[in-house]
Amino acid sequence: MLQRLRHLPISFVAALFLLGACSAPESTDELNATPATPPAIEAGGVTTGSVEIDGVTIEYVTSTPAGFEIGDPAPLLLAFPPGGQDLDLARVIIEGTYNAEAQRLGWVVVSPAAPNGELFFQGSESLVPGFLDWIETWTQPEGGSPHVAGISNGGISTFRFAALYPDRVQSLIGFPGSPRSDADSAALAELTDVPVRMFVGGNDTGWIPPAEAAAEALTDLGGDVELTIFPGEGHVMTSTQDGTVVFELLESFRTSS
Predict the structure, then answer these.
(1) Is residue 72 part of a domain?
(2) Rg of the chain on CA atoms, in Å
(3) Contact 175, 184 (CB under 8 A)
(4) 84 phi, psi to nearest 5 deg
(5) Which of 21, 38, 68, 173 is found 20 to 30 A from 31 (Cα to Cα)?
(6) pTM for the predicted model, two decimal places
């Protein structure tokens, strides 16, 4: 399904920052009460930490709701950052796009930084299952798996991760984001039971065709897919910037599961 919505004016300050950020193409009692590497968690806030996965250190940023304690179940969003996917961008995206709505609605959001600059569609995606295994030592994802979202390079990463590990994806949102390899496009056949939503600015001409191709392919396969194009908007979209649209979708996926 393709939607075109009315353009909203973009914040100049947000545009300056995010344009730079996106420029680079079982049960609760089964959880470990004390993970081998305890996470950096500040209930009701945003925190930064690191964990070693398969001998590689992954830095991350988390947002956890007020009252959250290690071992608590929660809806989980795995959020891939844009651009070079470094820790600073992960924190900016958590604080600027996800945190307010996540806090209001009781979500846990975790955004990993790409170790050694190796993006999550250029090799580091192989570390994500282990990273999720670690997350599941301190929270039980509602529905048994995370929802996955990403912006720009993070959006490409969502499709790479879903292509490799479709059973570990509860829903997928790219804003913008779409498959960017033949293998990732072919793997859409494994995502017909996964709600897929894509958002692209109407002026973001390089990102529209691959999103349209993915939407058409999933539609032909009988998948649950919607592509929304915001007329007049560019690579950075005001319409998705504060997280409201994203979390409206995430909440709808919770209620429909």
Answers:
(1) yes
(2) 17
(3) no
(4) -75, 0
(5) 173
(6) 0.87
Give just the sign of the alpha carbon dihedral 221, 1, 145, 79: positive
Give the residue carrying structure tokens 């956890």.
Answer: 64
- Per DSSP bridges, beta strands 76-80 and 147-150 are parallel
CATH of the domain at 81: 3.40.50.1820
How far is the C-alpha of 44 from the C-alpha of 63, rounded, in Å? 7
SS (H, E, C) 175-225: CCCCCCCHHHHHHHHHHCCCCEEEEEECCCCCCHHHHHHHHHHHHHCCCCE
- Residue type for position 242: D
pLDDT tens, per residue, the chain with 257 residues:
544 443 334 443 343 334 444 444 433 344 434 455 667 677 788 999 999 999 999 999 999 999 998 899 999 999 999 999 999 999 999 999 999 999 999 999 999 999 999 999 999 999 999 999 999 999 999 999 999 999 999 999 999 999 999 999 999 999 999 999 999 999 999 999 999 999 999 999 999 999 999 999 999 999 999 999 999 999 999 999 899 999 999 999 997 75
In a domain, 29, yes or no: no
